[in-house]
Amino acid sequence: MLTDFAKLETFLTVVREKSFSKASAKLGISQPAVTQQMKFIEDYLDVQVVDRKKNGIRLTKEGQMLYSIAQKIERCVNNGEKELLKIMNKDVTFLFGASFIIGNYILPRFLNNLKENINNDVSINVSVSHKAIEDLLDKKIDMALVENYIPDDEIIYREWMDDEIVIFSNQKLPAKAKASDLLSYKWVCRNPDSHTRLIFKESLEKANYPDCDTFDVTSEVTSATTIVQTVLHSDKNETPTVSIVSRNAIESLLKAGALYESRIGNHKMSRKLYIAYRKDRKHDAFIENVVDYLLKIKG
Q1: Which residues contact 173 (CB under 8 A, 6 or more apart)?
Q2: CA within 20 to 30 Å of 197's CA: 56, 157, 188, 283, which one?
Q3: 59-117: pLDDT as tens digits
Q4: How large is the C-alpha radius of gyration of the chain?
Q5: What string of DSSP letters covers 53-98?
Q6: What is the pLDDT of residue 75?
Q7: Distance CA 107, CA 114 (A)
Q8: What's the pLDDT tens digit per position in 203-213?
Q9: Helix (H, G, I), strand (E, B), or coil: what is residue 218?
Q10: CA 148 to chain centre
Q11: Residue 237, pLDDT score
């Protein structure tokens, strides 16, 4: 068993995720495959290593011992992979596909450190999430960083960071907007097919606020950059012009006092951002190194 780290990796993931199904999603294999590998380990050792409970799993005494051993092996494997990276061909460019918010506002913050960390040049293709996933499947890029979870059997998704969506204007707004506030503003809306607009509509419904289709909409825009610039340069002497956008896109303008933010009452609009890569590269040393780095800086 020690010569087949994949089974120990499955065991480690089950323990860390506290769930066979969550381990399945994280590893990119079926739940029966996870169960089969765990059974192999228990048959090989002739002991039970986990108890499956309704609310997760619990390690047995033998399972705790195996977990300690597996962690030591994992550290050795990881250190070995890092050493291998030093002798692998580095005259290549690591290609990211990223959605607009991630590619334009989040990833650039870490780009220089990322290049140093993986010892490679990095290139970013900025587009919508669906296009990034298509490019990933077509092997045009090495990794996609996206706002939408787009299910595909050939792709592994890893939850990366939370992205908050806020209401914003170039005029001061109440920190917690009431329904009457939202109805009084002039709105620059996202296009109807926008994932951001869908989250907004769902958030309004949860807060028992009117649907955004009933708001005073002056225009519908696809680009987040265009939305920010439209709101930023709107007339401050008139009714506030507002819209919604990722807080990451306007953070510097908020700090400078050029824009102001608000939220739907006590409700926080947020979504998960994802790291995506092809299953056929899940043991690729470069991919694992980039994923490890991105997960470290997610906070």
Answers
A1: 167, 181, 240, 242, 260, 261, 262
A2: 157
A3: 999 989 999 998 888 888 777 766 666 555 555 688 999 999 999 999 888 888 887 77
A4: 23
A5: ETTEEEE-HHHHHHHHHHHHHHHHHHHHHHHHHHHS---SEEEEEE
A6: 83
A7: 9
A8: 999 999 999 98
A9: strand
A10: 8
A11: 93
- Give the chain's residues under pLDDT 50: none
pLDDT of amino acid 85: 61
Cβ atoms of residues 87 and 134 within 8 Å: no
| Structural contact between residues 51 and 58, judged by C-beta atoms closer than 8 angstroms | yes
H helix intervals, the chain = 5-17, 20-27, 31-45, 61-87, 100-101, 111-118, 129-137, 179-184, 195-206, 224-232, 247-255, 285-296
What pLDDT sits at residue 192?
82
C-alpha torsion angle, residues 57, 8, 77, 61 (rounded to 10): 60
Dmax over Cα atoms in the chain, in whole Å? 77
Sequence letter at residue 61: K
Report the candidate in 232, 226, 217, 249 with the shortest Cα–Cα distance to residue 147.
249
